[in-house]
Amino acid sequence: MSKKILIITDGTESINRIANLISGALTEHSVNICSAEKFEGTDLLPAAIFFIGCENPSPASFSYLEEMLKHINLASRKCGLFSVNDKTLTYLTDIVKDSDASIGSPLHVKNNDIPKPDLDKWIKGII
């Protein structure tokens, strides 16, 4: 069954590349990738699953997303977090935890690359 999936990024090249890999692995689903600066809270409503990725902690474009996640209950939603930086994964986990979304294991992409089997295994752990 096809699910609506949203991927929110900081718009950086490395994160957009990973978002496109995730999207490409989710061929049976309807995936929308949007940058945090263009993100609106209503974008999240139809999504059963969402992914969030950024290069560095607290990018300016994430201020609205951070604030929204403090005040919304997403207990029925699944969330995947990804970055190229360990400190950023901690930041992402912290901003999502108040929303009660079910967070899978964060994905740390090293050397800007992730083998397809590893990516598919991570995605299965989320969805």
Structural overview:
By secondary structure, this protein is of the alpha/beta class. It is built from four helices and six strands; from the N terminus they run βαββαβαββα. Strands 1, 2, 3, 4, 5 and 6 form a six-stranded parallel sheet that branches. Strand 1 (4-9), helix 1 (13-25) and strand 2 form a beta-alpha-beta unit. The radius of gyration is 13 Å and the shape is globular.
How would you classify the helix and strand content by structural class? alpha/beta
Order of SSEs = EHEEHEHEEH
The amount of beta strand, in percent, is 15-25%
Mean pLDDT: 94
Q: How much helicity do the residues have?
A: 25-40%
Gross morphology:
globular
Stretches where pLDDT is under 50 for at least 5 consecutive residues are none
- The end-to-end distance, rounded to whole angstroms, is 12 Å
DSSP summary: helix tally: 4
Count of domains: 1
Q: What is the CATH superfamily label?
A: Flavodoxin domain
Under the CATH scheme, the architecture is: 3-Layer(aba) Sandwich
